[in-house]
Amino acid sequence: MSNVRANRVGEQMKKEMAGILMSEVKDPRVQFVTVTDVEVTGDLQQATVYITVLEDEQRDEALSALKKAKGFIRSEIGKRIQLRKTPDLTFTFDNAIEQGNRIENLLRDLNERGE
Q1: pLDDT tens figures, 92-106
Q2: Quaternary structure per UniProt (predicted)?
């Protein structure tokens, strides 16, 4: 049952974090950051936030800006979501889009070879 609650909390955090990054965080390095997923542990103590950025060159800058703003983001989430304790945030890059593009290219190559 805790996994269902952790998933719901993760989805709510994803929604709130998108709003926080868009309107509350003033650092221009997070301007093109997109939150793709939030995974929360079953005890709701830690959350892994998966992000993507518009350009690959901005990855390191965006990650350092998010780490710098982590305390502010966490406090804003705590204000918006009623939890006993706000989960500790860890930011990481989501490689799913890159993997999807790689698989699509492989399938396209296989299809072209077969014809």
Answers
A1: 998 877 788 888 888
A2: Monomer. Binds 30S ribosomal subunits, but not 50S ribosomal subunits or 70S ribosomes.
